[in-house]
Structures are given as C-alpha cells and as structure tokens.
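Run log, item B.
One chain of 291 residues. Sequence copied directly from the ordering sheet:
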Amino acid sequence: MRSRSEREGGLCMQEIDVMGIKTVITGASGVIGIAFAEAFLEHGAYVANWDLQESDPAKRLAQRFPQRYLFCETDVCREDSIEKAARETAAQFGGIDALCNIAGIIAKQQIGELETDTLDRLYKVNVRGLMLVTKRLVPMLKKSGRGRIINMSSIQAAVGMETYSPYTFTKAAVSGVTRVWALELAPYGVTVNAICPGWAKTAMADRMVERLGDLHGISTEEARELILSYVPQRRFIDPQEIAFTGLFLASSAAGAISANEIFVDAGMSHCAKPGLNLPVPETDDHRGRKP
C-alpha cells in the first residue's frame, strides 16, 4: 500500500522547487538580500529587487538572468514609491507569489542615550516599511493561491544584548506581526514565517570584529574568537545558509509551516552568554547603502 505522501504526489521525496514563482525581495542589493535573489533566480524563480539603489552584485544578477530579474528603485518608507514598484512588478511579472521582507537597518544605543532620530529611523524602515510593503502586496499574494511571506527578524527578537534595545524593539515587532499575519492570511493559502539569523558573514561583521579589537586592545583574530565564544558552532553564518532557509519556506514543501520563527544562528539564540557588548557601526543598512 502506498503511503499518504506517495498518494499525494510524493511530497516527502520532492526537491525544493520554486521554479516560476514570482518573488519580491526588498533590500536585495545588500549582502543577505543578494544571497536571497541569487538563490531564487538559480532555482528558476522570478525576482523583483526593491531597493534604494542597485548594487554591483545585483547588476551582475541582471546580466545573468535578464528575463527573470527586475530592479525597482524603492524606498520602503514611502507609500508612493511602494505603489510605483508594485505597478512595475505587476506589469512585468503579472502577479506575485512570494514576498521576502529583507530591507532593514541596525543601530546601537543604550536606552539612557537613545536619540529619537535613531528610534524613528529604525521604526520607519524595519517595522513601518515592512508593513506598508506587505499591505500593498497582500492582494496579489491572496490571488496566488500559494502565497508566501518571509520576514527577516533577528536572534535579538529573542535574546537580549546590551545597547541594542531600539533594534531589538523593531525585530520583536517583526516576529510579532509574523504570527498575526499567519492567522489572518491562512484562509487564503498564504504562509507567513520569520527568519532569525545570528551573526552572518558580512562587511558589518568584519567591522564589528575590528572595532572590538580596538576597544579591548587585542588582535583582530583574538576579537573574532571572543565573539565566536558566544556561538556554540564557533562560526559566522554564511548568507547563503539564510537564503536557503528562505528558499525552503517559499517552496511547496513548506506549505504546512506558518507562524514560525526559524533561527539560523549556529545555536547562539538558545545558548547565548550575557555580557558581550559588541561595538558595531552606529548604523548599518541592509538595503545596499549606508543611510
């Protein structure tokens, strides 16, 4: 007798398949966004890169996949910009099946020194922008019949780190709305999940290591080892590992996964030790440029 999975098309044996799905990726000119765009394109998806500017790596994707890649200059903080990008994408692709909300910024300030401009900037991009983009694209995702929303949260939505309260506030909000949207959109076949990365291999991480070394008067290698002592696997996360998680969540194989936070952090979120005050640049932008 065949198993249920075999009767229903062998779901357990199928590959992660996103062939032909039409995807909007905000912030796809930054390191993690580029990893997402490349992974989706290489697996046959269509990708619209909504970002402030098109980075050189993004331009190379346009050359490799001219028929399935679209760049839309987009400021996620402005509804008119979002509307223009949505119209361009709909005209080019005919609809949307998946939305990856990657655009975001990070800032580091203690609560007693918090500047309202910093808080407002984080909120506008990380929370308000994410919600405005999703609001605009939800009608198309409902029509898809198998819509996917993948939000970029952070381990800091679950693990407290000193001096990161404004950033943590925004990422906790992202994780929270992920659960709410999953309930609201379930009747339409739309799944909603959040990815919570740990420390990824990015230029920001390299600068963080250098500044930590300067702060403590130690070498770059010693600073790196100090940071990684807080990570059970003793390594930074490859952006492609984060992107592959998104690829899986966008596939039909993940149709039963919704309202979840997926931690891609080498174990850090559940084994973090207190007391590491990491010096990062005052702000860093996942959208492909410095603010």
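Observations after the first pass:
- The first strand starts at residue 22 and ends at 26.
- Residues 18-285 form a domain with the Rossmann fold fold (CATH 3.40.50.720).
Flagged for discussion on Thursday.
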